[in-house]
């Protein structure tokens, strides 16, 4: 088992070393995130997401969970003809995201909104329909986000959900988790994953890169 774990880490490091460095300011955002404990997508995860989006070529994306704007900026740079609406609950991160978006000259294509995505749905709906929904916010609310924003998608819309494997904890015995909060969070995330695969209107796959990305496409 230990050898298998080490092999996984070695392969991950190998793949990450193959990925070219992003633009200087994007790299600065990565450093800022690490120094300030701001969660952003892992290196392999964002690359896979960008590849999937480049194949889909969505005209409009709605993102739940802006943080400091990292993923929205990466998506906008990869997709020069795409508009992005992104929502962030934390006020400090929201302001930092706007600074980063402005610094990259992307304020005309990325619109960041401050507030609870569960309360802003009517306002967001005015910007739709969207070709892609990217969920990367409070994990315990994933099912609510999916249900609330899924109707805003275009007929060929795709939903991408990050962190669905949560460091592999969804596959472990929950008794190994130290706190009740962790056990509750992992239980809800596990329930969300199982629920995705029961949906009649969608077909879903989970890609085990980064922290796990679920891709749900209408049948």
UniProtKB/TrEMBL annotation:
Binding site for Mg(2+): 136, 162-163
InterPro entries: Cation-dep_OMT, SAM-dependent_MTases_sf, SAM_O-MeTrfase, TrmR_methyltr
Pfam families: Methyltransf_3 (PF01596)
EC number(s) given by UniProt: 2.1.1.-
Enzyme class: transferase
Alphabetically ordered keywords of this record: Magnesium, Metal-binding, Methyltransferase, S-adenosyl-L-methionine, Transferase, tRNA processing
One GO molecular-function entry: magnesium ion binding
Family label: Belongs to the class I-like SAM-binding methyltransferase superfamily. Cation-dependent O-methyltransferase family.
Biological function: Catalyzes the methylation of 5-hydroxyuridine (ho5U) to form 5-methoxyuridine (mo5U) at position 34 in tRNAs.
Subunit annotation: Homodimer.
Record's protein name: tRNA 5-hydroxyuridine methyltransferase
Gene from which this protein is expressed: trmR
